[in-house]
Amino acid sequence: MDGALFTNMLFATVVAGTPLIIVALGLLVSERAGVLNLGAEGMMAMGAVAAFAVTHATGSPWLGVLAGLGAGMAMALVFGFLTLTLQANQVASGLALAIFGVGLSAFIGKPFESVALPTVPAIRIPFIADIPLIGEALYNQQALVYFSWALFWAVLWFLARSRAGLVLRAVGESPAAAHAIGYPVVLIRYLAVLFGGAMAGVGGAFLSVYYTPMWMEGMVAGRGWIALALVVFATWRPLRVLVGAYLFGGVMITQLFIQGSGLQIDFPSQFLSSLPYWATIVVLVVISRNPNLIRLNSPASLGRSYRPDA
After folding, report:
1. Domains and CATH numbers, the chain
2. N-term to C-term CA, the chain
3. Rounded Cα–Cα distance for residues 72 and 78 (Å)
4. For residue 270, how many C-alpha atoms fall within 13 Å in the half-sphere facing its CB?
């Protein structure tokens, strides 16, 4: 592999892994509070269409990202009301949110299907972008790529070093005990769910405004489900989320490079396109063989409803 090909593949891997990092870190915070939200696919789709529509109307990618963030939070608020206030089942509510979001985004996005946005220029960091092989791949990227790195460090510090992160983890482990010592369990869970929805919306905005500056139905293409699997793969650890996202991103990009290289292979292109999802299934099967590994960091109250006055 020559240097230029390596740089191009590393660049593409970082870009492909970025929405997975953003969405998975948001879901990780939500799940560490004990809330299982399976609606990431729908929240990403709504974030993508909202971001595209606002960027197209205003010409500002940043306003588009804010719109995507708001759309994701609005979807998460609906989920929070159903599961935290009305005590609906979290799994069923999350699946309904995913289906609803994908369908509603397709309806809203119909007028934009033949529209393309201008490419958002990358931000090149002087000097370190000149490092051979990796400089151009890592330090000549879109703004949201740098945001994903900052988000990783923020979540890592929040969960491991801050008092608020300790409280959030306590709520995820034992909401009854946290409530008994005076913490507002439902409010904390609402905030965690809203944060997860906001990051899902930003991940969707990245896809429609930065990654492929256009809107098409189904453009999220299962990334929300991969992000959910990634949290389990990472056993609820931020660093493992970062590594896993780039591994999945590398699988996505590798199959594209193989298809675009013109190599004569015996496998149909549809099989290569399915590689990221096969990788997701394999990872989950391998992890599931060791239940102790999952229980090691899994929040004890994950997916369980809690009513303070019960």
Report:
1. 3-297 (1.10.3470)
2. 62
3. 10
4. 0
